[in-house]
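Appendix C. Worked example: DC1 domain-containing protein
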Amino acid sequence: MASTLQHGSHDHPLQHMETMEASVRAANCGACDLPFTSGNDLFGCRSCSFFLHGSCTLMPASFPAHPAHQQHPLRLLYAPANSGGFFGCDICGNRGQGFNYHCQTCQFNAHVPCVNLSPKAQSPAHPHRLQLLFSPPAMGPTSCGVCGLQIQYCCYSCSRCSFFLHPR
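Step 2, the predicted output written as structure tokens:
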């Protein structure tokens, strides 16, 4: 990757950086809101304390049809569409800030990590391969096989034995 890049989310050029700098250790990525770990490729603006994972600088500007929302395209926004500075993720149900994928027609919003959830997963809590569902199963209230809490949004599911798991 280049040592400097201009990203549409920030006014200043972003410099390639090392994660061991104190300013980076105290920050989360401005796009996905996840922390930086040793070995992350990242870019940042030291004067503004704005940092992005290298992979987050390469996110697609839109999804013409995403499995979680196939009705309309999702467009990458650098800030929530509403004026409050936060959005509710329609995939996981949690509140978010920063970058998000948004449908202007439906007001559908999604965290960057949520649109990138793997369609299949394996868990030490279950012997079979799990499939991602973007909405809870229609068979009524379903509980997570690990934490026991009710699943209200997306989950991983085993169709062979009706096992469900929160993505986290």
